[in-house]
Structure formats: structure tokens, C-alpha cells
Design brief:
Pfam families: Acyl-CoA_dh_1, Acyl-CoA_dh_M, Acyl-CoA_dh_N. It is an enzyme of class 1 (oxidoreductase). Keywords: FAD, Flavoprotein, Oxidoreductase, Transit peptide. This protein folds into three domains: 129 residues, Butyryl-Coa Dehydrogenase, subunit A, domain 1 (Orthogonal Bundle), CATH 1.10.540; 104 residues, Butyryl-CoA Dehydrogenase, subunit A, domain 2 (Beta Barrel); 145 residues, Butyryl-CoA Dehydrogenase, subunit A, domain 3 (Up-down Bundle), CATH 1.20.140. The protein is globular, with a radius of gyration of 21 Å. The termini are far apart. The protein is α+β, with helices and mostly antiparallel strands and 394 residues long. The longest helix has 35 residues. α2 packs parallel to α5 and α8 runs antiparallel to α11. Strands 3-6-7-10 form a four-stranded mixed β-sheet. The protein has twelve helices and twelve strands.
Length: 394
């Protein structure tokens, strides 16, 4: 199948000629990633999800496509635009949230932290290897009792001569058990700081969280840090306080705006194809008014969601994006995507609870996507603060 054929054949939800809004380079990248997902992810995702398996063998293939740290410049990174990064994220999440999450943790979190806040030595040591898929990174911010409120983290880094010594626990840390490097955020006497921690450092232990009902083709871990001793140069020199990790979280939140719509689109396509072939009362489900209403409602929200993602991406590329607009996109598109996936499942009937079809798998994954990088409640309060000028977080 050619990339040109992919443009139209797999976009039955497009009612607005969305591709006309994209440049030739953006379409080319989008179609390359779409072809990759069709060939490498979709034939295997049901088994990976069922077995709770993250396919490490796919990492070099993603690197070859330039997907790792793709929005960063230099150090072997592709230097793609925000819109190109978003388009790639939508295609990856059409395959599965777990595979897009890998690209997000690697590029938007771990690599972005080093790229934005690291020393030149840290950048040279880690970024080329991470862009090439030769090293995997993770991002240790959240804790068992510090999720939406990272300022309450208890992980602490103390000075011991020229060294730093870290103690604490991190939870829901993607990729930690397979990573070679971790960016760990910790309290210090001088405020919250970030540390580049090789995972082979004594005292660093990562344990996968199992079993899970969501994000099964992905890895999330609890990290124990017990007297982890690091040299002075392990600290990220450019990050003091929560602005450091938040600058990375906003990169990841931006990717979710696109990714959630990719999952919704894929669920819609499964439901539409099923409705066109499933016969009930001597005609296909697609011939019934209630089914058509469901399909139309889903398609409308998918089109609106992609338009919102593109608008936010264009503003990000232009340097005019407000942080509250990232919250707007993340809140809206996650909320609509999970509703679309659940509605798509209803068209599939009982067959929709099997892994032969994608909607319920996507809906389960989106429970996690809706929660991480800021819950609905957190983003609602960010937008409420923007509208009223009154912070209501406490």
C-alpha cells in the first residue's frame, strides 16, 4: 500500500478535508508513521496487550524513523516541528497508547529534561544514544503520595561532600525497569532539583507495577532510591524548582492532545467497518438511524479534536502558545476520546469486549492517559484560574 493510498483509505472520519491544512512534508511524515503502525504495531498489538508485553525490539525501528526526541534539535535528534510531532503521536496512539507513551517518555520527558536543563556534557553523553534508541530514559517525578501535587514530594537529595545522596520512592514511572538513565526530581535544601541517574547506580531499584487493566503494552514502575550516591555533575544545572519538570510535562501534555484523537479515530474506524458488514434484521447496522447518529456524533468530535490539536500545534511552532491552551487541549481531547471509544464499543456489541477490536482497549488505555500528565480536575482548575483569575487548587 502506498503512502498516498493511506491518506484517504484510512480516514473515513474526515468530513472537513483535514489533509488540505497540512504541508507536503507534514503529510509525508504522517503517512510514513501510519505505514509503520500498520505494518509493525497493529498486527501484534492484541497479543502484546493480552500478554502485558512492551516490545523492546520495536525501539530501533522507531529510532530509524526519527521518532525519539523528534521535536528536539541537535545531538542526533530530528528537529521536527510541533505539528509533525503531534501527527506522529496521533498515528502511534491509533496503534496503541502504550507505544505513543514510550515515545513521549523517551522524548518529551527524559530527553527534553536533559536538552532543556542539562549541561553540555550531559547532553553529549545521553541524547545521541537516546535518539538512536541505544539508551532508554525515564522521568521520575510522581510519588505514592505526590501525584497532582508534586511539590509535596518527599524524595530528598542531600549533599555529602561533593556528592549528592538520594533517598525516596517514585511511582508510575514509565520505562524505569528497562531504562539506562533516569531523570529523578528531588527536594534539596535549595529547592527541587533534577538529577541524571544511570540506572545501574547502586541503590536504584525499579519494579514493574502489575497487574494492570490499562496500558498493558507499556511499562510503569515503582522506583526505590536507597542511598543513591551521585557525583556533583549529576545535577541538571538549568532546573531549580518545579518549573523544570513542568516544562517537560507540558511537552508530554501537548503530545496527548494529538494522541487521544488518534485512539478515537481508530476506534471509530473499527466501529464503522463493523456496522457496514454486521447484518441485523436483514440489513447492516450502518443502515439504522441510531447507528448513524452514533457514527456522526463520533466523527464530529474527531474532526473538532484534530482541528484543536492542529491550532495548538501551529501556535506552539509560532511561539505564541499559552500554557492554559495545553490544558484546554488535553482536557477536551481526552474527555471526548474516551467517550468516542466507549460509544464505538456499543456498536460492536458483545464482540467489542474482545481484543479482535480496538475500542475497549483504547478506552481502557485512555483511563490512564486521562489521568497522567494532569488529571481532568487539575486541567479544569488551570482553566478556571484563567477564566476567573482566582486559583482554586487548595
Amino acid at each position: 500500500m502506498t503512502t498516498d493510498a493511506l491518506t484517504t483509505e484510512l480516514e473515513p472520519s474526515d468530513l472537513i478535508d483535514f489533509d488540505a491544512l497540512l504541508s507536503p512534508d507534514e503529510l509525508k511524515l504522517r503517512n510514513q508513521v501510519r505505514a509503520f503502525v500498520q505494518a509493525e504495531i497493529k498486527p501484534n498489538i492484541a497479543a502484546w496487550y493480552e500478554d502485558a508485553h512492551f516490545p523492546l525490539e520495536i525501539v530501533p525501528k522507531m529510532a530509524k524513523l526519527g521518532l525519539l526526541g523528534m521535536h528536539l534539535n541537535g545531538y542526533g535528534c530530528a528537529g521536527r516541528s510541533a505539528v509533525e510531532y503531534g501527527l506522529a503521536g496521533a498515528e502511534l496512539e491509533a496503534g496503541d497508547s502504550g507505544l505513543r507513551t514510550f515515545v513521549s517518555v523517551q522524548g518529551s520527558l527524559a530527553m527534553s529534561a536533559i536538552h532543556k536543563h542539562g549541561s553540555e556534557e550531559q547532553k553529549k553523553q545521553w541524547l545521541p544514544a537516546m535518539a538512536a534508541g541505544q539508551a532508554i530514559g525515564c522521568f521520575g517525578l510522581t510519588e505514592p503520595t505526590a501525584g497532582s501535587d508534586p511539590s509535596s514530594m518527599t524524595t530528598f537529595a542531600r549533599r555529602d561532600g561533593d556528592d549528592w545522596v538520594l533517598n525516596g520512592t517514585k511511582r508510575w514511572i514509565g520505562l524505569a525497569s528497562v531504562a539506562q538513565v533516569a531523570v529523578i526530581w528531588a527536594q534539596t535544601e535549595g529547592g527541587i532539583r533534577g538529577f541524571v541517574v544511570p540506572t545501574e547506580t547502586p541503590g536504584f531499584t525499579a519494579t514493574p507495577i502489575e497487574p494492570k487493566l490499562s496500558m498493558r503494552a507499556s511499562i510503569q514502575c515503582e522506583i526505590e532510591l536507597t542511598e543513591v550516591r551521585l557525583p556533583a555533575e549529576a545535577v541538571l544545572p538549568g532546573a531549580v524548582g518545579l518549573r523544570g519538570p513542568f516544562s517537560c510535562l507540558n511537552e508530554a501534555r501537548y503530545g496527548i492532545i494529538w494522541g487521544a484523537m488518534g485512539a478515537a479515530r481508530d476506534a471509530f474506524e473499527d466501529a464503522l467497518a463493523y456496522a457496514q458488514t454486521r447484518m441485523q434484521f436483514e440489513k447492516p447496522l450502518a443502515g439504522y438511524q441510531l447507528t448513524q447518529q452514533k457514527l456522526v456524533d463520533m466523527a464530529l468530535e474527531i474532526n473538532k479534536g484534530f482541528l484543536l490539536a492542529l491550532h495548538i500545534g501551529r501556535k506552539k511552532d509560532a511561539g505564541t502558545l499559552g500554557l492554559h491552551q495545553i490544558s484546554l487541549g488535553k482536557l477536551n481531547n481526552c474527555r471526548e476520546a474516551i467517550a468516542i471509544c466507549r460509544e464505538a464499543r456499543t456498536i460492536l456489541g458483545g464482540n467489542g469486549i474482545t481484543l479482535d477490536y480496538s475500542p475497549l482497549r483504547h478506552a481502557n488505555n485512555l483511563e490512564s492517559v486521562r489521568t497522567y500528565e494532569g488529571t481532568d480536575e487539575v486541567h479544569t482548575l488551570i482553566l478556571g484560574n484563567k477564566l476567573t483569575g482566582v486559583p482554586a487548587f487548595r
